[in-house]
Every structure is written in C-alpha cells, then in structure tokens.
## 1
Amino acid sequence: MKVLHAAAEVFPLVKTGGLADVLGALPQSLVKAGVDVRLVLPGLPPIKAGLERLTLVRDLGALFGAGRVTLWLGQVGDSGVFAYVVDAPFLYQRPGNPYLDADGNEWADNVQRFALLGWVAAHLGTGELDDSWRPDILHAHDWHAAMACAYIAASPAAGVATVFTVHNLAYQGLFDSADFHLLGLPARLLTPKGLEFHGQFSFMKAGLTYADRVTTVSPSYAREMATEEFGCGLEGVILARGADVSGILNGVDGEIWNPATDPHVAEAYTSSAFGGKLRCKAALQKALGLRGDPKAVLFGVVSRLTSQKGLDLVLAALPSLLAEGGQLAVQGNGDAALEAAFKAAAIAHPGRVAVRLGYDEAFAHQMIAGADVMLVPSRFEPCGLTQLYALRYGTVPLVRRVGGLADTVVDTNPSTLQDSQATGFLFGPATSEALGQTVSQAIKAFAQPKVWRQIMLQGMARSFSWPNAANQYLLLYEDTLRRRKVLL
Ligand code: ADP
Ligand code: GLC
C-alpha cells in the first residue's frame, strides 16, 4: 500500500508543537509495518535545507501567485522516509514561524501558501505529478493540508482515497470569501454544505467534509469534537460524518524520548535504577536558580502559552502550590500576557518559581526528566504529548480530565493504587480550586515515598507506542480502500 502524508511540519526540521512529532514518527512506523510512505511538505527554509539527496521531480510553472513552483523529492535524514517538497520561494522562503509573521499575525498570503500545499498533495494523489509513484491513500493533517481533500473531491476521476486527521480544531484556516476565486475551485463548493463557514471559507471544513475518513488523535477528543463545548462551531459538520470519525492515540518516539539513552539529560536512568532522575532534578533546580531541595515537589510545565493549555489556572493556583512547599518551573512561549505573568511570578518568588521563555528542544528534555510532576491543565487537548513523555520519564502527570489527557493518565486513588493502575492525577472543572486541590493531593502522595515510587513505576511501564498507532492507521486505510471499492 502507498500512502502520502501531507503536512506543514515535521520533526526535526520544522516544529511548533506536537504535529511535528507525529509527522516525525508515524511515517517511520508505517514504513516498518510494510507501507510505502511519502510525505509532501511546503518548501520552508529549514525543510529545503534539511532534506537530503533532493532531486527535481517536476517544474510546475506559475501557481497561486508564485512565479515558479518546482517539486522535489528527498529524504528525511536517515529515517528511510521520502518527502516531496514544494519549492515556491515567493510563498515559503521567509524566516520564522510557518504560519505567523514576526508580529504574531497570520501571513497575509496564507490562503495561497496552504492552498498550494493541498493542491500539490491532491495532484500527487491523482498521479498527475509523479508518473513513478501514485498513492492509494492521501492522508492530510490539520487545516494546513486539508484543501487536498477538496481538490480531490472536485476531480471526479481522482481514485485516491483520503483520510484527514484533526490535530487541533481551534485552528481552522478561515479566509475571506472574496478570496475564494484564488483556490481555482468550482463555486459550487462555496456553500454551507461545502467550504463556507459563516460568510468565510474554511480549510478545516475541506478535510472534515470531503475526506473519506476523519480521524483525530484520541478517542475522547473524537467524541468531544462533535459537541458544542469543543466543536469550535464545526460540531454539526462532525456529527453529520457519524461513524466516519474516529480517534487513534498518538505514541511516543522511543528513540527520541527515552530516559535511558537521552543525550540531553544530566544523567540517564531506567525504571530499575532511577538514581539518575534525582540528579536530573538537582541539575534542573541548579540550571534554573531554584533552591536545591530534593524534598520540594518540582512542578514542571513545557508548553505553548495559549488559552488552550489552561496555564492561567496554574498562575491562579500558584499561591497554594508555594504555600505547600512546591516549586514551579515553566518553559514556554506564546501569548504575551501569559509570558509576562509567568515572568512576574518568577521575579516575585526567586528560588521557588523559574521561567524560561522561548523554544528549546534540548531543555524540554531536561525539564521532563528533572521535574517531579508535569502539569497539563488544558481546557481542551486533542491528544497531548508532554504527559506521554512525562510518563516515560517517571515524571508524574497532573492533568485535566479532557481529551487525550483523560485517555492516557489514570488518576491516583485507593482503588487504582490497589489495582496497580494509578499513573498520575486528574482534575475535572477548569478552576484554580480544582487544580489547587489536586496539586495538594500530589504533594501529599510525594511525601509517601513508597506510594510515589509505585505511581512513577506504573507510569513508566505504560506503553504508548507508534507501532501500535501505525497498526490502527493501517487497519483504517485498508477499511477505507475496501469501502471505496464497494462504492465505485
Ligand atoms: P501541542 O501540539 O498542542 O503544542 P503537544 O503536547 O501535543 O501539544 O506537543 C507539544 C510538543 O511541543 C512537545 O514535543 C513539547 O515538548 C514541545 N514543546 C512545547 N513547548 C515547547 C518549548 N517552549 N520548548 C521546547 N519544546 C516545546
Ligand atoms: C495538536 C494538539 C495536541 C496533539 C498534537 C499532535 O497540536 O493540540 O493535543 O498532541 O496536535 O497530534
């Protein structure tokens, strides 16, 4: 089976969040499961520079306002995964974030930038761009690649089956209807049943409406997306797809996130010898200027600072966390107001609160290894990867009971301790009180070394593997192809 993944990010070349981690790992696991996988990516500077052995596939001429577009094929490092890259310097050759300019505004030509990505993916899907490789499945990720599904739907002879994965429904790719003509699609697609969304048009809707199958990255978020609370206005569209929508949990790339082999941490450790973890904590406290106290529970946050992540709750619960002797270390970047509030907290509580603003992959490993507890108090969370990494590193996750967090962390209580199931702490309402109470529960558990050790070891023993997720995608692909044959 041949599968083409279309996406805007791939670890380690371009990463703004978990999407990149998924594209860095899932294709490799599919290759190991015997699938012939290729990626198609936009020609952002680090992607062009990072792909190896690039060869020209085709000159595509002028497209979407870009004077000359060329299509290349290369390899992502030594992963064995081939990737097409769409080289359109006029649209992609610019520094910084793939979606935002230096002031944090969407690039003004995002409609063309990501329509081009979808267009190329779709035309690779129909076999028109590369005679030597034609996929059975075109798998598009998030709004950035979603238009591929609309281009396929608009071309009746296409043949290729489509799968669309929602990594985050809150980012939808909404554009002014006056720009619809830029897409080169028939006007019949600009209706409420098609791409129209309250007077605008939505790239996300292209995936949700036109893909043969829609997935998201946890079973709980698959259910939540179809509700008013989490559906971001698209719940009706999702509900209408019925059983075409399903959830497959992400995994952990064990080559990158493994405390026994991690080159970034102060000392490697395993579940049978975790003295190294204590030294990682001491090293982290030292690096951040926190008091070098092994008994203080060190709460860590590694996150984009956006309202999704619920970190305002951490700020509100901070007084009680500190009053009970806890410490807080935050690594993140995003909303200016949250950045400023965390900075102010660090200044107000030297030695007990530390904040590192910015994006730093190596330091994220040190945080996840060195903290005692990883806080993920998200308002919504399609899957969440930091709690999965934390579990692997014996760092106990404290998370909100929502989306993928609810699917991957087992709350600690007398019965889950008795059954050897407990792996972390969960809270329900998105309030600082609920978070504060759970923080307090974690601090009490930490004071009981035997209990804490049990929770840590049970978390480390849980396996969220990419090979397992890849098998589930494979079954979905096979089922999608079978259904398509029956329909044709
Ligand atoms: P999301 O994709 O919503 O941001 P995930 O938990 O799925 O959330 O993935 C976040 C990824 O980004 C993880 O790999 C995490 O370690 C990483 N990350 C988030 N913020 C930072 C940061 N400031 N520096 C380094 N890595 C970060
Ligand atoms: C999104 C979600 C996150 C998920 C990631 C990878 O960014 O916010 O929950 O883990 O995509 O699927």
## 2
Amino acid sequence: MAAAIAAYYGTRDPFGRAGDFTTAPEISQAFGECLGLWAAVTWELMGRPDPVVLAEFGPGRGTLMADALRAIDQVAAPFRAALRVHLVETSPVLRAAQQARLGDTVSGWHADARALPPGHALILANEFLDALPIRQFVRRGDAWMERFVAAGSFVEAPAEAPPPLPLAAPEGAVQEVSEAAQLLVAGLGARLAAEGGAALLLDYGPAEGGFGDSLQAVRGHASADPLTPGGGADLTAHVDFAAIAVAARAGGAAVHGPLPQGVFLQRLGLMSRAAILARSAPRNAGLVLSGAERLVAPEGMGRLFKALCLCHCGLATPPGFDPA
Ligand code: SAH
C-alpha cells in the first residue's frame, strides 16, 4: 500500500475536477482562512513565541497554506512576522506545485516530520493521515490472519509480528491498524510535549474504532479497484481517531476532540466568512455558499470528517475545542 501511494502521488497532481478527487481547501477558500486564524489564535495562547514553525503535512497544491497565510497577513501581522513555513511532502510533483503557489514564503521542504526544525510549532494536516498505509487483519476461526497483496490479488497468511489485536471477534471481521499513522502521531505528540505547540489534524473516519474494511480506491471521482496496478488510483483508509488519540497521549501530548468537522468549522465562523465572500462576489455567490455548506453539512463532509487537536499539556484549549 505504501508503494502504491508513493507511486500515485509521486507522479501526478490528483486534485480537482479533472483529477481523481477533491479536498476541503480546493472546495472553499474559507477552509484555509479559518485554519490560518485558528493557528493565529493558538499562537496567542502559546504566549506568542518568536520564531514559531508553521508546518503543514501533505500540503497537496499548497492551497490551504496560501489561504491561511493570506488571512494571517490581513489580521495577525505579529504572527505573520514570527512564523516560518515548513512543508512535509514526499511527492516531487506536488512539491513543485507548492513551490509555484507559495514561492519564497516556504523556508523548507522535508520528506519526514522528524526533520522539521526544533522549537515551538503549529502544525496543520488535512487528509494526510488517510494517505498513510494500513495493515488489515481478518478473523479466521480463533486466530487473526493478515491480508497481503501478492501477484495482483489479495491473499491471507498468518499475521507476521501483529500489533495488539482484539481477543475476540466474529468470523470474517476485519481489524485495520495504521502503524504508520500511530508512529507519526506518537512522535508528533512527543515533540509538542517537549518543545511546545499544537497540531490540528482533519481527516475522515469514525470517532470510535471498530471492525470493518475501509480500504478504498478512487479514480476520476468514482470508486476503483484497490488493486489497480502501479499506483493508478488513490488509496485511502478511514482514520481511527481513537487509536490516534491514544498514540498522541502516549507521546506526552494533550488531546482535544475529535469533533465532527462541521461543528468545528462552524465554531470557527466558516459560514460567516463564506457569507462575506458571497456578498463580495455576487456572481459566484451560489458556488461559494454551496462549497462551504458541503464542508459543514452532516450529509456532506461535516460528520464523517473529524478535527483532532494535539498540543502541549500546558496550553489552554485551542479555538473550536471548548466544550459548548
Ligand atoms: N492536504 C491536501 C492534500 C491531501 S492528499 C489537501 O487537503 O488538498 C495527501 C497529501 O499527502 C499529498 O500532498 C501527498 O503527496 C502527501 N503525502 C502522502 N504520503 C505522504 C508521506 N508519507 N509523507 C509526506 N507526505 C505524504
């Protein structure tokens, strides 16, 4: 799965109508603007450290960061002066798109989150964790088998060095484990605990884990065969937010959420921002409002997508995560 994802992102810009799928920052500029202002307010809560790393994991086309920086420029000049933009991205094609979009505002690109410069950090990641590889285990009799891919087909074989798995499960149950995401988040939690800061992770998946096969492939905005060769389709799996929260706490961070994305974005004022944008461009008003609506509506991306915040234990609750 890791090889297929690397081949997929390494060779294309998959976003938008002509591509395979679309994401929140590509749907509404208000998404990146709200996240930028979330970072600005959280920076105030951190005591205005200067310098501060503003990092994004898996920035795609750089749209979220561009929208965030524009909003920060307009209303949070001291934060803008203190921040240094760092991007964690493995795809050469998307690095070039980010360079074209963000130019000199980027202080550095990194292939791995562990290579980010030390110090206080604010980290944003939208639809990043779902692109990390998972392992799937299938219950057969009273044992767990692991599902592998061999010669273009799924095969089951006795699990090799399995992570902790539930002791009991119904016949045929599928348990997914994203060791890659858990390792990354444990490292991120340890970094935030040691150096200060906060990370905001937005992605799709249930708040509570459970059995189920969520591996999916998408191509041309339709579902595709996950065994499409050569990274020809985007492969993702639901993010297990409960497991992510456990990993972050094990690393030493405090965790807020997960909250449904719709609740979180509405608390940040996304719909008010969209209304202002619609008034300032009446000809596009319908599109602007329906895009924002899609991000918050439960039947759109508002419920399945979640927002999770990891932060230093001494930090006050960041915006949007206060109990209502
Ligand atoms: N955040 C963007 C893009 C999401 S797609 C948006 O919302 O539009 C996933 C992104 O993560 C892509 O930029 C992809 O190239 C990047 N990516 C995938 N696996 C990665 C890895 N292991 N390390 C760093 N970046 C990765």
